[in-house]
Amino acid sequence: MNNEPVSLAKALASFDALWSPRIVTRVNDYDVRIAKVEGEHVWHAHDDTDEFFLVLEGELRISLREAGGERTVLLPRGAAFTVPRGTEHRPSAPSGAAILMFEPTGTPTVGDRHEEVPDHVDATTGHPLDG
Predict the structure, then answer these.
(1) Are strands 127-128 and 51-58 parallel, antiparallel or unpaired?
(2) 42 pLDDT exceeds 60?
């Protein structure tokens, strides 16, 4: 990884693909990823890891399937939320958003369990920022 500061604004400006995260840097065995998102992702779950979201621009909604039923959390710009491991969830951004995620290196964007992955969702473990 780069040993120089990274401008998140410049990093976000360097790609247009939606639901296709770029790895900004690594912290120990974790990726710091950024993504542009719009519309709906796919219902999925990460069995062995939590997933951290920070909204950089716009507004993100995360629908959750929990023991008490389904609920949706609304994250405006500057808000952070962690989805607990094993929780089925579906991020969405009707008006578009830019987000930062923090998760173990190699974690697939569609989790360990997921619905059929639509064409607009990139099933990846993250792309290099410059790639």
Answers:
(1) unpaired
(2) yes
